[in-house]
Amino acid sequence: MNFHDVNLLIEKGEGFTIEFKRRISSAEKIARTIISFANTKGGTILFGVDDDGSIVGVESEKSEVELIEMAGKDFTDPPIQPRIDIVPFDGRDVIVCFVPESSMKPHYFLGQHNGHNGEDTRVYIRVNDNTIMASREVVKILRNENPDAPPLKVAIGDHERRLFRYLEQHERITVREFGRLVNISDRRASRILVQLVRAGVVRIHTHEKEEYFTLSYDIEY
């Protein structure tokens, strides 16, 4: 990674796979971002770059690299070891932290968090240019992306057929709406939808305020 590579990343701007950080306030906060990239499609964090893309540099590359390493080692489970480069800019240093997409999903956050009790609230993912907590459905999907996950078996019954008919007419549905549609618990509705996502029949759409499901393509049933 060199001066030109960093400039290209800055020109792209913050987004799904790029985040700017003016400074490192704590290892815990950095851990959330590292986890979100590892749990999604990977990404790069530029430390010493302001939100507007201006280069401010880091105060002490040695101590800040130690915080990044601590974030990946002590506040994530399984641990994450990002690739770290230090790139000089006219006397100012930018730390480039590259986090590859993980093959050991989901990674959990081990520090304090603001969500409800339960392990699923400790999983973070990347949505657009934001780091957000993953829902139970997303955590299940991440868990089953693991190559050691058991083989997928999906049976198409009455609940699934009613879901497909509904989606053909209304295009989208939430877990709660599906449960009410076929008169089952939210937990069971979630389980069915997750299985269909894993089978590639249904697609999950994750947003900050609402999560919903759509058909992946036209199907026969």
Strand tally: 10
Low-confidence stretches: 115-120
**CATH architectural label of the largest domain:** 2-Layer Sandwich
Number of domains: 2
Q: From the helix content, strand content and strand pairing, which structural class follows?
A: alpha+beta
How large a portion of the residues is in β-strands, by DSSP E? 15-25%
Q: What is Rg?
A: 20 Å
| Fraction of helical residues | 25-40%
The general outline is: elongated
Can you tell me the CATH superfamily of the largest domain? Schlafen, AAA domain
CATH domain fold name of the largest domain: Methyltransferase, Cobalt-precorrin-4 Transmethylase, Domain 2
Overall residue-averaged pLDDT value: 88
The CATH C-level class name of the largest domain = Alpha Beta
Note the run of SSEs as H and E.
HEHEHEEEEEEHHHHEE
Q: Count the DSSP helices.
A: 7
State the major sheet.
4 strands, mixed
How far from one another are the termini? 51 Å
Give, in spatial order, the strands making up the sheet with the most strands. Answer: 1-2-5-4
Question: What structural keywords apply?
Answer:
alpha+beta, 221 residues, 7 helices, 21% strand, two-stranded antiparallel sheet, 2 domains, four-stranded mixed sheet, single chain, Methyltransferase, Cobalt-precorrin-4 Transmethylase, Domain 2, Arc Repressor Mutant, subunit A
Question: What features would you describe in this structure?
Answer:
By secondary structure, the chain is of the alpha+beta class. It has 2 domains: 3-135, Schlafen, AAA domain (Methyltransferase, Cobalt-precorrin-4 Transmethylase, Domain 2, 2-Layer Sandwich); 158-215, Winged helix-like DNA-binding domain superfamily/Winged helix DNA-binding domain (Arc Repressor Mutant, subunit A, Orthogonal Bundle). The chain has helices at residues 3-12, 27-39, 61-74, 136-143, 158-170, 175-182, 186-198, and strands at 18-21, 43-47, 76-77, 83-89, 92-99, 108-109, 124-127, 130-133, 202-206, 211-215. A 4-stranded mixed beta sheet has the order 1-2-5-4, with helices on both faces. Strands 3-6 form a two-stranded antiparallel sheet. The chain has a two-stranded antiparallel ribbon with strand order 7-8. Helix 2 crosses helix 3 and helix 6 packs across helix 7 (186-198). The radius of gyration is 20 Å and the shape is elongated. The chain starts with a helix and ends in a 6-residue tail after the last strand. Residues 115-120 have low confidence and may be disordered.
